[in-house]
Amino acid sequence: MTATSTAASASPAALLGVYARVGPLFVAGNGAELVAEDGTRYLDFVAGIGVNALGYNHPVVREAVERALGTGLVHVSNLYRTEPGERLAEELVRRSFADRVFFCNSGAEANEAAFKFARKWSGKTEIVAFSGSFHGRLFATLAATDRPEYRKPFEPLVPGVRIVPREDWAAVDHAVSASRTAAVIVEPVQGEGGVRPVDPEWLGFLRELCDSRGVAIIFDEVQCGLGRTGTLFAYEQTGVVPDVLTLAKPLAGGLPMGAVLLRDAIAAALKPGDHATTFGGGPLVASVALAVVRTIAEPDFLTGVRQKGEWLAARLASLAARSPRVREIRGRGLMWGLELAEPAAPFVTAARARGLLVLTAGANVLRLVPPLVITPHDLERGVAILEEVLA
How is residue 90 annotated by DSSP? Predict the structure, then answer.
């Protein structure tokens, strides 16, 4: 049976309707393109919401999966040692500020774990997050996510989580308490909140404030980490080093994986039984993640991301200067938002009709997060379609 004939018999009716799925049924992908069941090719500036950093059908991912399957070890559980997870942890420690790594299955799980670790370390309970934040949809991470429409149906949420205005010096000084606050969590570049790079000077103030009050800083790099902004970790561009860092989306090349990176001072507070995961860091996903991290971390690869990001920034600035619909462009590397003077959703639909996939980041922002391996030609092609749509 061919992929097309299999697809033709599929129906979304059995899926829980928590996603308003749109567009065609996709059956294949290659490079920066997705292929629909009718053979139509779509240029993808969504990349699985920032997941497919290496695009589709990349040899690094394909070969890593094949090698891992060849061992016969897809899952063993964390009751026992396996080599891939240990090697991946060593790689992440070597390339970051961290001393220890915890693996899980998603960004929301990574942030929930980070909250628990900070509470255990500090003996305090409060978490401070910021306006525009998105940290997940589990009960604690939803409480730290500044999206009222997501929160309201599930209230009351986890208590002890406070959201204060982003980059408001006085507000954070008032909110962060030496006696109550376990941690503050911040995205160095907010994703769902409109693609907003956070002011490095304010992050430096936040670091000093937390140091003086015995509070941990968690950087949520689930979307902006692992090469997306042009450096392996987004914090490298801020001059501020966190105590805890969370990763997920691109980590395992499209397989579900999250990670928490943390300093020894916090890790020392955790003992066996304090937290757990059945699937986290299993040999298959860890093998693929190790190959992905090593590929993205190559200096030439990151240089390429920065160069393409600089080109895209200039091109989008030119577009904005000519389009009264575009109020502002924001971003770093290959993570950009175009804030419009009107709702963004109709332009997502119009772009898809022309063969370009983009997404929103809030009601009025178009978000562009193409695969990091995208070619300059495909970048140019995508922006040209965007210009047509915005015209």
Answer: H
**Ramachandran assignment for 15, one of left (phi > 0), alpha (psi -120 to 50 degrees), beta (any other):** beta
Q: Which amino acid is located at 312 in the chain?
A: L
280, 297, 314 - which closes a domain: 297
Contact 201, 237 (CB under 8 A): no
Query: What is the chain's mean pLDDT, rounded?
Result: 96
- Domain boundary residue, one of 244, 279, 297: 297
For residues 216 and 265, give the distance between their C-alpha atoms in angstroms, rounded to a whole number.
10
* Of 244, 257, 272, residue with least CA distance to 98: 244
Cα–Cα dist 83/62, whole Å:
19
Q: Where are the alpha helices (DSSP H) in 162-249?
A: 169-175, 200-213
B/e letters for 241-254, b = 16+ CB within 10 Å, e = fewer, are bbbbbbbbbbbbbb
Structural domain boundaries enclosing 37: 3-58+299-390
- The answer to whether residues 43 and 156 belong to one domain is no
Same domain for 43 and 89: no
Which CA distances in Å does 286 have to 82, 90, 102, 178?
10, 12, 12, 38
Beta strand 258-262 with 326-332: parallel, antiparallel or unpaired?
Answer: unpaired
For residues 2-30, one letter each, b for 16 or more C-beta atoms within 10 angstroms of the residue's C-beta and e for the rest, the string is: eeeeebeeeeeeeeeeeeeeeeeebbbbe
* Mean pLDDT confidence for 193-216: 98
Sheet strands side by side (includes 41-44): 26-30, 33-36, 41-44, 356-357
β-pair type (26-30, 33-36): antiparallel
pLDDT tens profile 15-42: 999 998 988 999 999 999 999 999 999 9
CB 183 within 8 A of CB 218: yes
Phi, psi of 336 (to 5 degrees): -135, 145
Looking at residue 34, what DSSP letter applies? Answer: E
pLDDT above 50 for 1: no
Average pLDDT over every residue of 203-226? 98
Per-residue pLDDT of 76-107, as tens digits, reads 999 999 999 999 999 999 999 999 999 999 99
The answer to whether 339 and 329 are in contact (CB under 8 A) is: yes
Q: Which helix (H) or strand (E) holds 307?
A: helix 299-322
**CA neighbours closer than 13 Å in the CB half-sphere of residue 203:** 22
